[in-house]
Amino acid sequence: MAKKSDKLTSQWNVKITPFVRKVLWIVGGGILLLLVWYWMDGQIQSQRLKTAKNTYQTLLKAKDSKQQQLRQLKKDDRETVTLRSQWKKMVDQLPAHSKIDQVLKEITKIGMDEKLRFTFFRPQEEKKQEFYRVQPIQIGVTGDYHPLANFISKIANLKSLVVVEDFTLNREKPEQEALSMQLRASVYHDFVEDVQQGHSG
Known about the structure:
Layout: H1 2-11, H2 18-92, H3 100-113, E1 117-123, E2 127-128, E3 133-143, H4 145-156, E4 162-171, E5 179-189, H5 192-200
Antiparallel strand pairs: 1-3, 2-3, 3-5, 4-5
C-alpha cells in the first residue's frame, strides 16, 4: 500500500513530508471533531425544541383551563347577581313583624268585601327559620264559588308574601249553593326587629 502511495506521489510529483502528514492528521481530526460537535449540538437543539414544544402545550392547556375557569366565574357572578336580585325582591315582600296584624286585617277585609262569612280565623304558632319567620293562619269561610275563588286569588296576590295551602272545599248542605272552605294562609315576614330587640336586651 505504501508502494502504491509512493507511486501516486511520484506520479503527481507530490512529496508528503512528515510535517505535512502531521498537519493533515490534525486537520482531519479537527474536521471529525467538528462534525461530532455539530451532531451533538443538533441532538441538544432537537431535545430543547422538543422540551419547548411540550412546555408550550402545557402552557396552552393551562391557558385554556384558566379561560374556562374565568368564563365559569363570570357565569357564577351573573347567577349570583340574579339570585341577589331575586332574594331582594322576596325580602321586600316580607312585612316587618310589627305589621303582621295589618296583614291579618287585610285578609279579613278581602273576605268581607267578597261577602264571605268567617267560621273561624285562628293564627297558629309562629315558625322560626334562619332568615325569616312564618305565621300560619287557619281560616274557615263560607260563600258562593266565585267569591271564594276571588278570596284565594286576592290573598295570594297581596303585596306581602302570603302562601295559601291545604284548602278544602265542601258544600254545607246538599240543598244549598253555599260552599264551605278551610285553608291555611302562611304569612312570611322578616325578623330584624326580633334581632334588634335581642341586641338591645
